Amino acid sequence: MDKRQDTKLIIIGGGEDKKADKEILREVVALSGKKNARIAVITTATNYPLEVGEEYKDLFYDLGVDKVDTINIRNRQEANRRQITKSLDGITCIFFVGGDQLRISSILGGTDFHKYIYELMEKGVIIAGTSAGASMMSEIMVVDGREEDAPKKSTIRLAPGMGFLNGVIIDQHFNQRGRIGRLLGAVAQNPYPLGMGIDEDTAIIVNDKDDIKVIGSGVVTIVDGKEIEYTNISEQYPDEPLVITNVKVHILPNSYGYSIKSRKAIIQEEK
């Protein structure tokens, strides 16, 4: 996969480097047009929109972006206003910051702003997001769940996401916060979508064929439950340990890839 061609999504597991090499943010800029990039930073997820918006604005300007706008949509009425959708005209990348993914889906989901993003994706505008801005990318998103526990039936709470990437359930800050248990619970509840846990300072670049490539310092953990033979997820007693058998797991670091459609890893041969 050539990550510089046909990129549609950049999904970041949170905690991306903002001080040293800034590898992931540099890649966002490179794929969005380099010096000609025009980035809209969407701060809906955070309770501190001014501070977070200014932080990313400064970061992207320091990386040579031509124009950066911050857009803080606070309610559904604003998300349906024509001037808000028009503010995206000419943008090459829409970047969602972290915070609370339910704020993104509940405020933006199904609005004119949400629908317009789909139109812009068709025209080649890149959608990027970090932390909560990563979780909301899928049709089903992780909202909450116990961390660092052994997997239990009740470790996970799910909600509809924004639907920018089909066939996956995304979790972020993954290994840093011990979230394998809650991702297994999500896959047990929804065996067909792939569970995709993205570490901090790690991202997946998704092309128009739904192939991904991993960049950054951590790994991406992919849980494939399509061939699950047995799980007790639907039984009573939600605090019991989760039973789940015949699950396939892939661990993919920088430069490795995965085809969501064929459900196969794309191996980077060592030289």
Provide a short characterization of the protein structure.
By secondary structure, this protein is an alpha/beta fold.
Structure overview:
- Helices cover 24% and strands 29% of the residues.
- It has one domain (7-263): Class I glutamine amidotransferase (GATase) domain (Rossmann fold, 3-Layer(aba) Sandwich).
- The strands form four sheets. A nine-stranded mixed sheet has the order 3-2-4-5-1-10-11-16-17, with helices on both faces.
- It is globular and about 50 Å long.
- It is of the alpha/beta class.
Keywords:
4-stranded mixed sheet, 29% strand, alpha/beta, 271 residues, 24% helix, globular, Rossmann fold, 9-stranded mixed sheet
Instruction: Report the mean per-residue pLDDT as an integer.
Output: 92
The strand count comes to 17
In the CATH hierarchy, the third-tier topology is known as Rossmann fold
Number of helices: 8
Separation of termini?
18 Å
Write down the CATH class. Alpha Beta
Sheet of most strands: 9 strands, mixed
**Pairing-aware structural class of the strands and helices?**
alpha/beta
Number of domains: 1
